[in-house]
Design goal:
- It contains 6 helices and 9 strands.
- The protein has 206 residues and is an alpha+beta fold.
- It has a single domain, classed as Pnp Oxidase, Chain A.
- Strands 1, 2, 3, 4, 5, 6, 7, 8 and 9 form a 9-stranded antiparallel β-sheet that branches.
- Strand 3 and strand 4 form a beta hairpin.
- Helix 5 crosses helix 6.
- The radius of gyration is 19 Å and the shape is elongated.
- It starts with 7 loop residues before the first helix and ends with a strand.
- The relative contact order is 0.18.
- The mean pLDDT is 92.
């Protein structure tokens, strides 16, 4: 597939979104300078006020899109409370965007353990030391916590903290957008009623 984007025929031929997403992500891995797997994650708090921040996609398949975080963080609390979220990938070098939204589930302990074991040792220490999203009285307090956990886990493996795991967003809609001249962009949305349902395609006005 050319990195210049999908033609109308290309859109029409797609019957499900995951293969198309994989092709676009592969293109991004060849063109984006930093973090082609970076994605804006939107959540909502208990008052209905939205929050958005960048996270890194760590895996995807037909079950959904996976990322990992501290469950005691702001986004962790909001997702656990609402069980819903949205994502937006934007690859500026390709003039492409993918938006998705749906229900969220916690990944299995086995999945979380497997990914956690691949993280650099310093990142695993950081997962213990950082009280993510909570007030920090100064940089020294964080550095002190890092030093304490470094000493605590000086020998042997570093276990995964009980408050650190992953989420899987199970999309109900996935929209592919590609820039076209004069803002006559290509937009194709895949929709389904449930995370187990069949996909329907809808071409959207730009």
């Amino acid at each position: 597939m050319s990195v210049t984007g999908l033609t109308s025929r290309d859109f029409t031929e797609q019957s499900e979104p995951f293969g198309l997403f994989g092709e676009w992500l592969k293109d991004a891995e060849g063109s984006e300078t930093n973090d082609p797997n970076a994605v804006a994650l939107a959540t909502v708090d208990e008052h209905g006020l939205p929050n958005v921040r960048m996270v890194l996609l760590k895996g995807y398949d037909e079950r959904g899109f996976v990322f990992f975080t501290n469950f005691e963080s702001q986004k962790g609390n909001e997702i656990l409370g609402q069980k819903k979220a949205a994502m937006c990938f934007h690859w500026k070098s390709l003039r492409r965007q993918v938006r998705l939204r749906g229900e969220v589930e916690v990944v299995s302990d086995a999945e979380a353990d497997e990914y956690y074991a691949t993280r650099p040792r310093g990142s695993r220490i950081g997962a213990w030391a950082s009280k993510q999203s909570r007030p920090l009285e100064g940089r020294f307090a964080l550095e002190k916590a890092v030093a304490e956990y470094t000493a605590r886990f000086a020998i042997g493996d570093i276990p995964r903290p009980p408050h650190w795991s992953g989420f899987r967003l199970r999309p109900l809609t996935i929209e592919f957008w590609h820039d076209r001249p004069f803002r006559l962009h290509d937009r194709m949305e895949f929709r389904r009623e449930t995370p187990e349902g069949d996909w329907n395609k809808v071409r959207m006005y730009p």
